[in-house]
Structures are given as C-alpha cells and as structure tokens.
C-alpha cells in the first residue's frame, strides 16, 4: 500500500505540476507510471490518467481565466476543430496497421522543455491585437485540425502540440497559451475518460482513481497559481526545467518497461 501511495503521489504531483505550468497532459505521466511500477492494465491506466486530467485542467483553466490569461472565444473554436480531427486521425490510423509513435509525447516533452530554457517565449499580449478577427478564427480552426489529427493518429502529445502551436504559430504569450491549452484539455480529457470507462464497462481501481485525481489537482492548483504570478522570464525557465525533468522521467519509465 505504501508503494502504491508513493507512485500515486509522484505520478499525480508530477502530472499536476506539468499541467498547471505548461498544459502537459496527465496521461503522459500517470499512465506509464501506473503500468510500469504497479502493473496496471494499460487501458484502465489511461482511463484513470484522463480522469485525473479533467479536474487538473479545469482548476488550471479557472486560475488562468481569473488572472486574464485565457482566450475563451478562440479556445472554443479550436476545441471543436481538435475534437473533429481527432476522430479523423484516429480513423486513418486504424487503416494503417503497425503505424505507431508511442514515444512521440515523451521526446516532445523533453525537447519542448529544452526549447523554453534556450529560447524563452517573451511575446506580449499586445502582439495578437494586430491580427484581424477573421485571421484569428481561421488560424484557430486550422491549428486545431493539425493538433486533433496528430492526437488521433499518434494517440499522444496533445498538450505539448497545443502549447507549441499557440506560442510559435499563433503568437500567444506563454501564460495565455497555457491557459487556453488547459481550457481545451479539460473538455478533451472528459470526453476521453468518459469513453474509456463506458467502453470498459467496469469500475476502475477506485483507490488509484481517488489519489491520482487528488494529487494531480493539488499539483495543478499550486503550479497554476505560481505560473500566473511569476514574471515571464522566470516562468519560461521553470517551465523548461519541469518539462525537461518530466521528459527524462518518462524516458526512464519507458526504459524500465
């Protein structure tokens, strides 16, 4: 029982901090740790991770919105595009047996962490004011389609893809990018968790579900509060270090499995 609690604590807090700071999907951290160290069924582990993601993303989105760092309008547009093209990507992937990129999310996390340390995002909010509303809507739809297709086709990396595209392509400053990302993830994680539990037809390990949700929520809440109060330069460095450490942790977990 002590080993289980330690794994739940490390997985949940790590996932929560990654979510609150950078919009990292909890599924990228929690599910491999449950599978590797506690020998959970992979399908159930992903369901528990997605359920943990819902509350963590929701509380993070609320915190970012409270501090004025969330673009709800264009986030909703991107959300529908992400959901639609996730289905498209998933369908195409089902027609191509043997096509898998399970390590995509792991290395994406590590590389993005290094990127934030070496080349921090110092964009100001005013940068978006130069774009017309029509341009913003079109870009949100197109970028949502790219993110959704990659998530559906590869099965991972949604949070990292959103953060990369929101900052590098759409020109969001870091805090608004993370806030908008976790807003979208709250809905996509809920959809994923509900479908997992419905298809599985049985209750998950309730202890694991409770503690993973609790620790992920706490980690996300603390990280989101810190992120919204920290200066941009400090936030970039801390985000880079956290993502790099989580990336290295997941590489280690992959190696052990």
From TrEMBL:
InterPro entries cross-referenced by the UniProt entry: TM_pro_TauE-like, TSUP/Inactive_protease-like
Transmembrane feature ranges: 43-64, 76-96, 102-121, 141-166, 178-199, 206-226, 238-256
Topology class, membrane: Multi-pass membrane protein
Keyword Nuclease applies: no
Domain of life: Bacteria
Major localization class: membrane
Compartment(s): Cell membrane; Membrane
Cell membrane is among the record's keywords: yes
Record keywords: Cell membrane, Membrane, Transmembrane, Transmembrane helix
Family: Belongs to the 4-toluene sulfonate uptake permease (TSUP) (TC 2.A.102) family.
Name assigned to this protein: Probable membrane transporter protein
Species the sequence originates in: Blautia parvula
């Amino acid at each position: 029982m002590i080993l289980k609690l330690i794994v739940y604590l490390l997985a949940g807090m790590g996932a929560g901090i990654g979510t609150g700071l950078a919009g990292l999907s909890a599924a990228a951290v929690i599910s491999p740790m449950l599978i590797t160290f506690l020998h959970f069924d992979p399908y159930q582990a992903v369901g528990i991770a997605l359920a943990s993601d819902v509350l963590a993303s929701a509380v993070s989105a609320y915190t970012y919105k409270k501090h004025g760092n969330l673009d709800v309008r264009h986030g909703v547009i991107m959300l529908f595009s992400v959901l639609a093209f996730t289905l498209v990507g998933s369908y195409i992937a089902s027609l191509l047996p043997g096509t898998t990129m399970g390590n995509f999310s792991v290395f994406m996390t590590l590389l993005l962490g290094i990127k934030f340390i070496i080349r921090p995002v110092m964009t100001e909010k005013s940068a978006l004011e130069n774009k017309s509303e029509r341009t913003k809507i079109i870009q949100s739809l197109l970028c949502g389609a790219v993110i959704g297709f990659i998530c559906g086709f590869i099965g991972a990396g949604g949070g990292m893809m959103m953060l990369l595209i929101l900052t590098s392509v759409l020109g969001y400053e870091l805090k608004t990018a993370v806030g908008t990302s976790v807003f979208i993830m709250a809905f996509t994680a809920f959809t994923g968790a509900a479908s997992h539990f419905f298809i599985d037809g049985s209750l998950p390990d309730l202890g694991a579900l409770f503690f993973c949700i609790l620790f992920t929520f706490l980690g996300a809440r603390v990280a989101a509060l810190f992120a919204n109060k920290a200066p941009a330069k400090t936030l970039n460095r801390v985000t880079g270090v956290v993502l790099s450490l989580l990336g290295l942790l997941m590489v280690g977990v992959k190696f052990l499995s």
